[in-house]
Amino acid sequence: MLNKLLSFISEDIAIDLGTANSRVYVRGHGIIITEPSVVAVNKKTGQILAIGEEAKKMVGRTPGYIVATRPLVSGVVSDFEVTEQMLRYFIEKANRKRFLLNPRPRVIIGIPCGVTEVEKKAVCDAAKNAGARKVFLVEEPMAAALGARLAVQEAGGNFIVDIGGGTTDVAVISLGGIVISKTLKVAGDKLNEDIIQFAQEEYKLLIGERTAEIIKIGIGSAHPLKEKKQMPMRGRNLVTGLPEEILVSDEDIRRAMEKSIKQIVTEVKTAIEETPPELLADI
Question: Which of 143, 172, 203 is the last residue of a domain?
Fold first, then answer.
């Protein structure tokens, strides 16, 4: 009886706990939070100064003892305490106080394919310590397929490629289960690194992670575009040590990201080769 009452008055929350960004969905209200998975920590005191958007603004702009850190690496908890604090921030922000008694919510969290039982337990424990009453885990490709309204319960093949910040998940889904899954630690963050490396090697220009990401989103592509695009790339010239701005094209950025994109394509091909013929016909 108590469980039924709690289910009625508490929120049901879904958290897409990503390496780069996290989203929070509340049943009946949709996605209410989309923020970077970044936490700013004072290394001297161990105090958490900011979480999410506010913490991301501090990246590269703080004194040495204030560090903006990502508590998840490749979708897996790397810093348990900081992850717990970040989850608490998201849960408290999402859990609206509709009643004087504000019960702990039920929470479902997306995790990459192929994580170990220890890593699953770390996510569950962090969520419970952060204020969740019950915690359920769902593999990210399955969540992506459900979100895309694919008929995952039917006896037919569904192919999913989920490119996140830290990992790319490739999966074939049928009858409500994952038949084939691959997880590749090449995704959005690696593409940012590729652009940073390209700027250093090609133009002797040192740029930051935020600049690389803005350029990737602005003009990055895997295939040639119908209309050519250009964007300014600002950074520090490694030869003179002075600030410099250059124009880069979509072709430059494709060249920078080419190797990583080929790795993702290879993983997709491998998954297709391992897929049972009957399911492959559906795909």
Answer: 143
